[in-house]
Write a structure and sequence with these properties.
single chain, about 350 residues, Alpha-Beta Plaits, 3 domains, two-stranded antiparallel sheet, 7 strands, about 10% strand
Length: about 350
């Protein structure tokens, strides 16, 4: 299943970037997501259509494939159009306010003029007074009617703006969600991991756990990618249930997941990883519709404390190296990145 492998500590993100450069694909977030999926998916149709694009594909060709196979793929034009619509609505509200101000200014001028004429004696006769009152009444009614219409239009435009803003927020949310597992995706993970090192207490009491489903390629080769996607979904659900609801968890590519823990010690991080591992191991993979029993799945884990790394790339590299140590040592276990100055042994189940 995997076209994208972590070989000799190479970051999968770097492999995606290299692929994009080779094919002359612009470095837009949605293009990154598409290439990442191409390199990680078992979907033969996606692989076939993306490969057929060849080198130097146009953005419209890339977006056509992305919208077809990635439910959350929204081209920049969609977001841009929404922003433009919001801008148009705001300009419309401003125009309405200006029109209302102009109408009120004219009404105010009319009141001043009427008052002046009455003071000058122009309304000495009852007929003249009735004439002035008629003009004033008509202007008052017209101004109130226009004011009411403006208020109604402003309310409607405000509702439209709120709806457009909600749509824009939804597009932003979908851009950070993995469509198969409904977890956060690699883009959201990269942002969250970088945030650890942004504050004054950079790296303090944070931990990164990376996990990989064991023998995932076998599931795909034996049962097909639909079962493979089911394995991913089940693993994601079990991991979420084993973690606190506010804990950040993401599918970072292929069969790999990542968990970022805050305010935690090494011993607590080890306990969290083991809780996930045991929950995964204890859950059989069965399809109740057709009776298919795929047995149990297991996962291998790598752990690194943020204080043992210099930044987001370094902590990921070290946790990933610990993960591959786990897989190389028999799988279904946890390995920890241990600084050279530490006496902690590698943890085994």
């Amino acid at each position: 299943m995997d076209q994208l492998e972590n070989v000799d500590g190479i970051d999968p993100a770097s492999t995606v970037i290299v692929k994009m450069r080779e094919q002359g694909i612009s470095s837009l977030p949605r293009n990154y997501e598409l290439v990442y999926q191409f390199l990680n998916t078992s979907n033969a149709a996606l692989i076939r259509e993306f490969s057929a694009l060849g080198s130097r594909p146009t953005q419209s060709q890339l977006d056509e494939v992305g919208k077809k196979y990635l439910p959350h793929h929204h081209g920049a034009s969609t977001v841009a159009q929404t922003r433009e619509r919001i801008s148009d609505e705001m300009q419309g509200v401003i125009k309405l306010v200006k029109q209302d101000q102009s109408a009120l200014r004219k009404y105010s001028n009319l009141l001043g003029e009427t008052s002046s004429r009455m003071s000058d004696g122009e309304a000495s006769s009852s007929e003249a007074l009735r004439g002035l009152l008629k003009v004033l009444s008509s202007a008052t009614g017209d101004t109130m009617e226009k004011g009411g219409a403006v208020i109604h239009q402003m309310i409607e435009r405000t509702k439209e703006m709120a709806q457009l803003k909600a749509e824009l927020e939804e597009y932003k949310r979908l851009a950070t969600i993995d469509p198969i597992t409904r977890l956060s995706n690699r883009r959201a993970f990269d942002e969250r991991l970088s945030a650890i090192y942004d504050g004054q207490q950079s790296g303090m009491h944070h931990a990164l756990i990376v996990a990989d489903i064991d023998h995932f390629k076998t599931f795909n080769d034996t049962y097909g990618h639909q079962v493979g996607d089911r394995v991913l979904s089940v693993a994601a659900a079990i991991m979420k249930s084993a973690l606190d609801k506010d804990t950040f968890i993401a599918r970072t590519g292929g069969e790999e997941f990542a968990v970022i823990l805050h305010g935690i010690s090494l011993e607590q991080a080890i306990g969290t990883a083991e809780r996930i591992r045991l929950a995964i191991e204890a859950t059989p993979l069965k399809n109740h519709h057709d009776g298919l029993d795929c047995g149990s799945i297991t996962m291998s884990f790598g752990l690194c404390m943020a204080t043992d790394a210099t930044g987001p790339e370094d902590v990921y590299r070290k946790a990933d190296a610990a993960l591959y140590e786990s897989k190389g040592s028999g799988r279904n276990q946890l390995k920890i990145h241990i600084p050279k100055t530490s006496r902690w042994p590698f943890f085994k189940r």
